[in-house]
Amino acid sequence: MKIKFTKNQLLITLGIVLLIGILISIYLVSKKYDDVNIISVNKEYNLVFNNKNDTLNIPVYFDRNDSFLTEIDEIDNVKIKNDNIELIGRLLEVKKVSTIKYDNKKYYEYSFSLSFSSYDNYKEPVFMSDGILYIRYSNGDELNLKIGNLNVFFNTTSDYYLNDLIVTKLEAVTNEVKSINTIVGLNFRIYNNTDKDISINTIKTKNKYYELDDSKVLYELLDNKENLKNKYNDYSYEAISTTDLDESISIKSKQYIDLFIPLKYLNGVKYLDRLPVYIDYTISGINHTFIQDDFKFLSNNSLILSSNGINKYVYKY
Amino acid sequence: MKKIIISMFFILLILVCVFMPKSVEAETYTTYQEMVFDDSDVELIDNWSYMTYNGYLAKLKKKGFGWSVYYATKKAKFSFVAETLYHVKNSGLEEITHTFKYEESYEETIQKSVKGSLETEVSYNKEKKKESKFKFGLESNLDFSIESTEKTKTTETDTVKIIIAPNTELFIKVQGEGVLYQGTARRYFFWIKGKEGAFEYAIITTEYYSIDMNVIDESKEATTNEN
Question: What does the alpha-carbon distance between residue A99 and residue A62 come to, in Å, rounded to a whole number?
Fold first, then answer.
């Protein structure tokens, strides 16, 4: 059976097909060029880079998982900067790590992993307040995302290879301060692994905004649930003593000592999840520094509660 | 003969379908080493007595269609001690410097379990991420709006350098906090009772990690070796 179309029928059919085609094209084009909503979070990055395999992982949230903004091949260069300093990074990976729901919208969390080669340029920890993650794409576009404060130390010290001290217990004591569940002190058990006595002179985390107040050291491990105020008469989270340890802490050969050191905030209480610890000590009259690598003490599953502020951006095509 | 073979094949097929092992997903919060509620009256649904269970079922209101839901507990705060995240032993006489890379893979921050004829199902979405849901449409009738954010982690890697003393074992321990919701639900169709039972979901809010090195227990070692 042969179907015959009249000229009008053919024109109408062609017109409908053309209209559907145009509508589909408009839909696809508009879908492809939707704006991308981006969220960056202000965090406290406290890191020790011991070798070139160590990475700085920065979470950035996108409401689309198909844009070129998360394609590593589309990224020309990346750096962390503020008005005073910039660290040129090498982008190793952009990895989708989780999904979140924020403002009733689904976001994909991508981790931007950067390594640095500027080890020999900095002998002291590099502090950068209000850091910006700068990403330049091959099409010339740029993203400047606020990521919070950074305190990074490129460890090239020869003390790296010393094993005089071993931290055999390490945990954070946390508390809710001004509605922020954060670190308020650290419990340590430090073991003297040598056959000589060791004197500990200071224990610090070397951050401008918060510091371990070792003048208020307790010679015990503090229970997490124990109220700090029971242990100190005039306890404040924000007042720090200007003095270091009254006298050095002595640890006998092959013995350990338990310590609790409160962490004080100098510029407002912040959500903290990761810290390194720098222990200055003397053995046989020679000073050394033992660095306990940065350790993640806690993680919070809420985007808001695990950051010190949220920044929203829109990328327009 | 042909018919017998075909019949046997079908019988075999049915047997395989009936007795095929189903993958059972352990609910993480139910396997914690320790779980303590702020309110000591709260109990996991697995520990509910017959009386408690039926008492909460009796609180369900009759409906023409859909799910009737009763919450026995909402936002019950708890703390927990989970399994060890990482463990490594140094049986030698010298300390070792260990750079370990561990992966957090708490795949879901909302964990679910059921009792009675309610069911959960586990599936993997397009992103190969594990998702568990209450079946038969119960999921959409429950309140998951605890926070403005819900986070479902897949993996997060971390590298830490640590020195392990001789004759000690290192543990990276995990403790945490969360909130629990539990209650009963029944499905109605033309006022006729259908599936019913208890549901429970735990939302993990915070996890705490700690380093703990202990001297290797030689007596335990000896026992293990003897075994």
Answer: 10
* Three-state SS at B4: helix
B161 touches A at CB < 8 Å: yes
Q: How would you classify residue B197: left for phi > 0, otherwise alpha for psi between -120 and 50, otherwise beta? A: left
Q: Any CB–CB contact under 8 A between A118 and chain B?
A: no
In sequence order, the 6+-apart residues with CB closer than 8 A to the CB of B115 are B45, B46, B48, B53, B197, B198, B199, B200
Q: Which range has the top average pLDDT, A9-13, A203-207, B15-19?
A: A203-207
Instruction: Identify the residue among A162, A253, A301, A302 best suited for mutation to test binding to B, counting B beta carbons within 10 A and taking the highest.
Output: A301
Q: What is the pLDDT of residues B159-180, one digit of tens each?
A: 788 889 888 999 988 899 989 9
Q: Do the strands A43-49 and A142-154 form a parallel or antiparallel pair, or are they unpaired?
A: parallel
Say yes or no: B97 contacts chain A, CB-CB below 8 A.
yes
Q: Shortest Cα distance from A157 to chain B (angstroms)?
A: 15
CA dist B141 → A100, B137, B187 (Å): 21, 7, 11
Size of interface A-B (CB pairs under 8 A): 112
Residue A63 has a pLDDT of 93
Contacts of A54 in chain B (CB under 8 A): 159
Specify the pTM. 0.81
